[in-house]
Design a protein that fits this description.
The structure is a homodimer.
Chain A lengths: L3 E15 L2 E6 L8 E3 L7 H13 L6 E7 L12 E10 L12 E4 L15 H16 L4 H12 L11 H10 L22 H15 L13 E2 L1 H12 L5 H10 L3 E8 L7 E6 L20
Parallel strand pairs in A: 1-5
Antiparallel strand pairs in A: 1-2, 1-3, 2-6, 4-5, 7-9, 8-9
The structure holds a DNA duplex (30 and 30 nucleotides).
DNA sequence: CTCCTTTATACTCGACTTGAGTATATCGCG
DNA sequence: CGCGATATACTCAAGTCGAGTATAAAGGAG
């Protein structure tokens, strides 16, 4: 079984939420995601990642999940001798104590994806982006219909609902259309901050994965402090999803799952009536799904 | 940005369904999954995989999706100079024309996972497997409770429902408990056929991913012929899920999605009343989800 | 030719889930 | 004490889902 030689590199999308803002850990003042070599000394990929993230940033990583492995030739600068395989991970971090001087910093992820935050309604920039994309669709007569449908679906145009999970599809459309700086669209400002190489695409992958995951796995709690109020929990989910949620229904959803329990304490720091504090029930299996199957199973 | 050197290898889980049996492509008479080196000549990982699968097997791969990247030290035989990174893919193949002599062969995937097929009720072997696992849980008093809960959840014991998606979790429990041949359980026959290295685990990963995916993405159609009856479609889904489905509800689910359309023809090959033939509506976006969101979204 | 078996297709009904809205409780503060 | 603010509880209609029943249209046995 012969195998080709390659350089191996690990890239991390580390996410945290401070107050109402979802953040991602970056290096180079927000221009790149933290990354490092995968070395012989490392026991496994996960172990390798945990090790240097812990070393370099001082933050223990809670939940960790593999995102994707890239090796496209046009994505990496070939050394001429071998190519680079990049294995990306999504990690969730609880605390975000002020980073020391010169240390990696946290940046709000909507800096890079302003069109993804719909908590205050659809951003104004979306309109302009959609128009750019539609003009791009018209330019290629042979693929026009397909492109139009993709745009309408991804951006929730013409009656289709906005789907927060499609962060990656939206970014890829914008990349294809040359609307983002990475792919040529210099003049156009509403498309957010760019990043080194394909790091912004990796971040989009991480956001999309996390947004999808919070719907069926109780991973949000990896981002919460030990005890929290229901509104804090809701605000965290809203920050991640970039959407506002219906409060009574959110509460109903949460306590129908038996995921949390009251600590017995209350806090009056919220302004109005004191809120009960809750904690995550660690007895709950991580595998446990929020929702059920979608197949019409027959039991005889 | 320094990067460590490693060998890169691609591994494929290629799935097809013949009649009522889900199959996987294998080499070495069913002992291993097809794999090959990732070389400089390849444009990307996907392209590399498509290339040698096409060359070696003569089957064009339809849908292709990355599964997981492994590099654990104990999983691969180190060359002493570098380690091996294995990138696994799940591919769906439509036709399964008889493979030529000496060519790779297809094996029913329940040969390797007999306990996963619940179409004729829970297999007898499940009982014995569950008892083995429970004895294993009792042996470690400190982790006993956690293990018990994992077993009950994964195998649907004590009132919990069997969840077909948990193929990987079940295999991993069995591996941990030393019930499968790979991890020492030689005497025990009900645990199916074993494979080279960690290939059976990779197959479990592929099965689990496919079972989960058919619930929210219309990927089944990648396994269907150009035109098919509704029962054929149902049998294919049932083969993959290892479950029987409720016929009227399956039909309702399918046509509420607008995924297929009548060809206008019928076939009388099914025995009774002739069945209408359908085809997949290719206009449908692949991204299109079967079901909706599980967050209580608020629209103001 | 008719009945019977077999598969296909259509409809019904109750339980549960989901989206949306309303009502009541309890704090700080002027 | 009343008012704004937040917390918490309840209601209700529409939609979805599981389960079962009814009718249609073929082939084959007698």
């Amino acid at each position: 079984m012969p195998t080709g030689l390659a350089h191996a590199e690990l890239i991390a999308v580390l996410a945290a939420v401070t107050g109402d803002e979802p953040r991602v850990m970056t290096i180079r003042s927000g221009d790149a995601l933290p990354s490092g070599p995968f070395e012989l000394a490392h026991r496994s990929l996960q172990a390798g990642l945990r090790e240097w993230v812990g070393d370099q940033t001082g933050h223990p990583v809670g939940y960790l999940e593999q995102l994707y492995t890239f090796a496209d030739r046009d994505r990496t600068q070939d050394t001429g001798y071998s190519r680079t395989i990049s294995i990306s991970y999504l990690g969730l971090v609880r605390e975000q104590a002020a980073p020391g001087a010169g240390k990696p910093g946290w940046h709000g992820w909507y800096e890079y994806f302003p069109w993804e935050d719909h908590r205050k309604g659809a951003p104004d920039s979306l309109q302009a982006i959609a128009e750019h994309l539609q003009r791009w669709a018209e330019r290629d007569t042979s693929r026009r219909d397909h492109r139009r449908r993709r745009i309408e679906f991804a951006f929730g145009l013409h009656g289709a609902a906005w789907n927060e999970d499609l962060t990656l599809q939206r970014y890829e459309l914008m990349y294809e259309a040359g609307v983002v700086a990475e792919s040529g669209g210099e003049e156009f400002v509403a498309t957010g901050r760019s990043m080194f190489a394909d790091h912004r695409r990796i971040l989009a992958t991480g956001i999309a994965r996390l947004r999808a995951k919070i719907k069926y796995r109780p991973v949000v709690f990896e981002l919460m402090p030990e005890s929290f109020t229901l509104l804090q929990l809701q605000r965290t989910v809203e920050a991640l999803a970039g959407l506002t949620l219906h409060k009574p229904n959110f509460r109903r959803l949460i306590d129908s799952q038996d995921l949390i329990e009251e600590t017995g304490d209350v806090t009056s720091e919220t302004g109005g009536r004191p809120a009960k504090l809750f904690r995550y029930r660690h007895a709950v299996l991580e595998e446990r799904a929020f929702s059920g199957s979608k197949l019409p199973i027959s039991r005889n």
